[in-house]
Amino acid sequence: MKTTILSWILRITVSVILLQTLYFKFTGAEESIYIFNALG
């Protein structure tokens, strides 16, 4: 039981992080543009 709850918490956490990255990617955020210009 505890492992399934922990598993769901980890899945939701990862999903939230990935959704945030999609927001920055598709809105053309200044932070993203700066990072990729600095990398080359």
From TrEMBL:
Highest taxon, organism lineage: Bacteria
Protein keywords: Membrane, Transmembrane, Transmembrane helix
Membrane-crossing segments per the record: 6-24
Protein name, as recorded: DoxX protein
UniProt lineage: Bacteria, Pseudomonadati, Bacteroidota, Flavobacteriia, Flavobacteriales
